[in-house]
Amino acid sequence: MAICTVYTTKLNPACSSFSTPSKTHLGFHQKQVVFYKKSSSRSTRGTSPYFITCSAGDSQTIVIGLAADSGCGKSTFMRRLTSVFGGAAEPPKGGNPDSNTLISDTTTVICLDDYHSLDRTGRKEKGVTALDPRANNFDLMYEQVKALKDGVAVEKPIYNHVTGLLDPPELIKPPKILVIEGLHPMFDSRVRDLLDFSIYLDISNEVKFAWKIQRDMAERGHSLESIKASIEARKPDFDAYIDTQKQYADTVIEVLPTQLIPDDNEGKVLRVKLIMKEGVEYFSPVYLFDEGSTISWIPCGRKLTCSYPGIKFTYGPDAYFSHEVSVLEMDGQFDRLDELIYVESHLSNISTKFYGEVTQQMLKHADFPGSNNGTGLFQTIVGLKIRDLFEQIIASKAKTPVEATKA
């Protein structure tokens, strides 16, 4: 569906109509068509040609925001999410091999690091971290996310994580679902207002440290000392600019140390909370057994294999930043993923299309980090809820023009 915006201006064009392909200073790809109606009088004063700017993109783009600190599992979450919609997520074909963008049949995932206004050297010179708003171009972020939501393709910048430089831009076309993931998807109120749904990954300091060591030492060759220094240097900015965004999230996945093992310091067993805001349009919180009740459930036994320290689920209503929420919590880890269907059968409002779909998705990605605990389970469920939200929004938009015609 084409998107058209009509403008009028005082001009005296020489022809009745013409078209001008153009690219705006913000990287939008659009086509301007000017329709001119000649005045009946000899004077050209008051003549108002109509400028109609059109894009050929899909007007049904849904925007999802995912916020988290660096090294907190955003990439794994994105792979689970795109899998729910089908099709493997890959970098743009024929483009920059260091692109941060992932594209599948339905989704496009944009890394908000691409809106850094300062490269690595520039941040060092100014003494700011990437978390600091002064190191990011929120005006461009807003304009381009809005353009994509409106069906207009953009040329998005690329932040090269290998070189620390800003590479030439890449063309991004409007997808059915646009996911913006990174440090600041809910920081700027203009961008926040464009989101159809938002998620915050809230990793406790203890768990975050363990994860960052594993990723940065094993995958990026960083030393333990440099990792500790990086965390300490980033913490003030994280507290000021990143952590505050969770108050705006529709859903928070909070990862904490287990309570099943007294004085546990290893961080191998996790306690994970799925905090779901009540009253969000097109979103119904998941519940265990009885909606709105307070539930404590230890499922281990004949139907679920659990080695020490076992598994415990809790569910109930709560308050979060003055919002009414429902909280589903899992402490412990699964021994056998194929037995997860027993837990799945006791959960409601999980937006599956068939019995056992959560278990199927978990088994499909058994090698992903967190697949044996609540991080993988809740990420999968949120992915299914986003699919349901997308389908409801599309159905609602398709219904509205029909109702308007009847009226």
UniProtKB/TrEMBL annotation:
<keyword id="KW-0809">Transit peptide</keyword>
<keyword id="KW-0808">Transferase</keyword>
<dbReference type="GO" id="GO:0042803">
    <property type="term" value="F:protein homodimerization activity"/>
</dbReference>
<keyword id="KW-0067">ATP-binding</keyword>
<dbReference type="GO" id="GO:0009507">
    <property type="term" value="C:chloroplast"/>
</dbReference>
<dbReference type="InterPro" id="IPR006082">
    <property type="entry name" value="PRK"/>
</dbReference>
<keyword id="KW-0602">Photosynthesis</keyword>
<dbReference type="GO" id="GO:0005524">
    <property type="term" value="F:ATP binding"/>
</dbReference>
<keyword id="KW-0547">Nucleotide-binding</keyword>
<keyword id="KW-0150">Chloroplast</keyword>
<feature type="domain" description="Phosphoribulokinase/uridine kinase">
    <location>
        <begin position="63"/>
        <end position="261"/>
    </location>
</feature>
<dbReference type="GO" id="GO:0008974">
    <property type="term" value="F:phosphoribulokinase activity"/>
</dbReference>
<dbReference type="GO" id="GO:0019253">
    <property type="term" value="P:reductive pentose-phosphate cycle"/>
</dbReference>
<dbReference type="InterPro" id="IPR006083">
    <property type="entry name" value="PRK/URK"/>
</dbReference>
<protein>
    <recommendedName>
        <fullName>Phosphoribulokinase</fullName>
        <ecNumber>2.7.1.19</ecNumber>
    </recommendedName>
</protein>
<keyword id="KW-0113">Calvin cycle</keyword>
<keyword id="KW-0934">Plastid</keyword>
<keyword id="KW-1015">Disulfide bond</keyword>
<comment type="pathway">
    <text>Carbohydrate biosynthesis; Calvin cycle.</text>
</comment>
<dbReference type="InterPro" id="IPR027417">
    <property type="entry name" value="P-loop_NTPase"/>
</dbReference>
<dbReference type="Pfam" id="PF00485">
    <property type="entry name" value="PRK"/>
</dbReference>
<keyword id="KW-0418">Kinase</keyword>
<comment type="similarity">
    <text>Belongs to the phosphoribulokinase family.</text>
</comment>
